[in-house]
Structure to design on (78 residues):
């Protein structure tokens, strides 16, 4: 799991670095194709991270519901 998160972080940095040619008004068909690939990679990263956020929220809700049923705070659960 940690390896995938590292790959995601590297992709984010790579995508940000890929934007610098736009500052000097560089245009080439291969560069445009590269930007489309980076857009796809950022969509992949966003979907994966949103899934992790949803899973964490579901886990927190489950723990809260469990604590409410038992009447004990979550930090006192065995």
């Amino acid at each position: 799991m940690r390896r995938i998160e590292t790959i995601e972080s590297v992709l984010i940095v790579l995508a940000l670095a890929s934007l610098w040619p736009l500052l000097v008004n560089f245009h080439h068909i291969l560069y445009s194709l590269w930007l489309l690939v980076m857009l796809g990679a950022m969509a992949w990263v966003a979907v994966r991270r949103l899934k992790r956020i949803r899973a964490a929220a579901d886990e927190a809700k489950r723990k809260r519901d469990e604590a409410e049923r038992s009447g004990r705070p979550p930090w006192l659960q065995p």
User: Anything to note?
Assistant: The first helix runs from residue 2 to 17.
